[in-house]
Amino acid sequence: MKTLLLAGTALLAMTGIATARDITVAQSSDLRSNNPGVNRDGNTDSVILHIVEGLVGYNNVGEVKPLLAESFEMSADGLTYTFKLRSDVKFHNGKAMTADDVVWNWTRYLKPETKWTCLKDFVEGGAAPVTGVKAIDASTVEITLAKPSAVFLGMMSRPECGFTGIISSESLGADGSFVQPIGTGPFMWDEWKKGEYVHLKKFADYVSPENEGKPDGMVGSKRPLADGVKFMVIPDASTVKAGLESGVLDTAEISPDLIPEFQASETMQLIVARNNGKNLFYIQTRDKVLSNPGVRRAMAMALDLDELVAAASNGTGEANGSMVSQDSVFFSDTQKKRLPYDVEAAKKELADAGYNGEPISIIANKRGNVPSFPAAVMAQAMMQQAGLNVQIEVLDYATQVDRRRSGNYQVISQSVAPRLDPALMYSFYVGDKDKNASLMWDDPKAIELMNAAYAEADQARRQKIFDEFHGAHAEGNAGDIPLRHGRCLGRDQEIEGPARLAVERPPLGSVSRRLIHHSRAGGDPRRRPFHHS
Amino acid sequence: MRANLHSLIVWTNETGEANLQSALNRGEAMLRFILSRLAMAIPTVVLVSVTVFALIRFIPGDPAALMLGDMAQPDQIAAMRVELGLDRSMPQQFLIWAGDVLRGDFGRSIVNDEAVLPLVVSRFLVSAEIVVVAVLLASLIAVPAGVIAAWRQNSLTDLALVGTATVLLSIPTFWLGLLLLLLFGLKLGWLPVLGYVSISDNLVDGLLYLVLPVVTLVIHEAGVLIRMARASTLEVLRLDYITHARAKGLSEGAVLWRHAFKNAFGPTWTMIGLILGNLLGGIAVIETVFTIPGLGRLMVDSIFARDYPVIQGCLLFVALSYVLVNLVIDLLYPLFDPRVVAE
């Protein structure tokens, strides 16, 4: 969401349109808090991303690039990171950002009482334990780690961590409690009417990263040309549609079933952009029936993934059998390999495995804008063709999460938030199931590969690790069937550039992201302030 | 018996002293009535509290896991459960919560750490703004319509009114709301499509934002009330004293309004109270369709998020408001039917 808005404002500058106004965006739920990386969810991250920035961020292909830092260096032993800060960055209160601010922020994040979501990753026992943060001079910060970590910068850039955003110490009150975020982003915190809307206003002194004027994920060029952004809380899909049609809303995510209607509309525009979230079929490998690898392979081969994704995404999706995102620099030809769609082979596998029509239940949820249920319906039909006795059980999301975490399921169809570093993605489902019942792939080799991916910084060697990972995964032993999200770019004559979202929030981790851009027929074209990066 | 005796005194004794005594006794009776009704509410509220507390915990779904997201490790979730007090036994959790509630502390939201009581009250006021206006308007329209339908029983007017009422109460509110939204908001552009402005912030805008949700509720509830008003009026119109009134030569208007209506309105009044209490308990569908930050939406969101303190706070508040609304309805009942006080 953030990427779209910021890039959209950049378009206004590019096309020389001077008029600005508030942009109104629909959100399905209210913010949890305005404290970056502390009490959060996907919608919260989307708002916070406009306000705060970190030292580094992800670009469109999942690489970590400098953001508030001008540059960064890693020492030869991989234990020390030196960040040279940009000299042109100001907080929303007008004060210049210095190395002391960075040290203050990191000190705050690492205090348990801050309740930073990502604390466990950056303390002893975590993937990148930080042992020291110090200011070398006014514009240089040095962060030391207890052990080398290939994912240190990537984890800093994650939405769940609040992008490890650097905020002014004035964001806190005299008693140390959090008041409101005073960040460095293109928009400033303005007003929060709980249950109704959040309003951000333009930060006139914002200085965008250069990047030759081109947008690129979180780290590209971005300038706030709109006066403000209003995030309205609208949980009902029909109301969102009415809001878009009436012009009250400028942009909103819609459900896939509305795609044809919006494609045909003369007053609205459909934009479909790929994100890096994914929908997985989690398979319980300890289930009596599904513990048999032959049954799992048969399930995988029974699925025509291309057809399944196309149907579940209303033609906007694209299948990908790998856990590595198509956008990632690690997405190689190896990642494209997957078990073939072959119903006869699936039937043979089932016969060899001694499957006798035992029931298999897929748990799905009907949350808006995620393909959990339609994907389950398609999978059910396809698996039944191969002779699998598949039923669907629809649960609410909280119950579904509970069942997954407790391991009490056979198959679950659920979307997963994007993790641009493949190691972070693998860590989501590789590990000891006795210690964590929500994990799927309890295999010593997979665990070894995952640990190696966390420690290895060299990109070529990491590529090899991920390719090896995928080889084992594609054999169908991993206990999951990933459905990668699709790509479908919608264009408007007034919108330039590719539609691409490198980072996506969890609720939007669906087949594809759909944004409706409102423009009235014959209306002022300047009411089209969005541009994708 | 005692009330009857005092009524007799009022009728026979013209002295001021007697009137004063009578008023005092009436006041005493009324106070006793209120206290007894409030006392009757206590077990209701306790039962609601226990039931809600237990039921919400029997529903699968862990608020700690939902809060921490899909990357959380089991030890983090366990730590969060300790922090939220969810690691304690259910009776312990209940006693702590009940003790806090008795001290006026409804706890804090698991989701956003807001104090529950102010949150619930602020959302309740938003819902109440819509519900009270809607029920008032529905009553003003439906009661006369129901009386007329009864008066003109089996005529075309009756048929039209009953038919309309049946259609109105059969329409689901979410569908009706969306239709109104599309027609008056989208096609005609007369009214705002979404958003909310409080009347206290801006009277004119606030009223404009209230029109569609209020009209939706009025249309739906009027159907119920028309049928109730008609049925109770018909029952009264068949009584002997109405025939007697007519035999005395009174006009139909006088018979209807002075004799029939007063006695027939009692059941309708009770129904109005039930509807009011019910709607104040949450109009989640209306609030969702019209993006109104009311109590119903808060409750639904809290259930999805397993925000136990907010769910408990909402339902306890709803139970209390239901009891109070019906108490007020009962207290006002004697205005329409003095026999209630006498009894």
Automatic annotation (TrEMBL), chain B:
PROSITE patterns tied to this protein: ABC_TM1
ABC transmembrane type-1 domain segment(s): 124-333
Recorded family membership: Belongs to the binding-protein-dependent transport system permease family.
Transmembrane portions of the chain: 38-59, 124-147, 159-186, 206-226, 268-290, 310-329
Main location: membrane
Topology in the lipid bilayer: Multi-pass membrane protein
Subcellular localization(s) per the UniProt record: Cell membrane
Pfam families named in the record: BPD_transp_1, BPD_transp_1_N
Keyword ATP-binding applies: no
GO BP, one annotated term: transmembrane transport
Gene3D superfamilies assigned: MetI-like (1.10.3720.10)
The name this protein goes by in its record: Putative peptide ABC transporter permease protein y4tP
Family annotation (InterPro entries): BPD_transp_1_N, MetI-like, MetI-like_sf
Cellular-component GO terms for this entry: plasma membrane
SUPFAM superfamilies: MetI-like
Tagged with keyword Magnesium: no
Annotated keywords: Cell membrane, Membrane, Transmembrane, Transmembrane helix, Transport
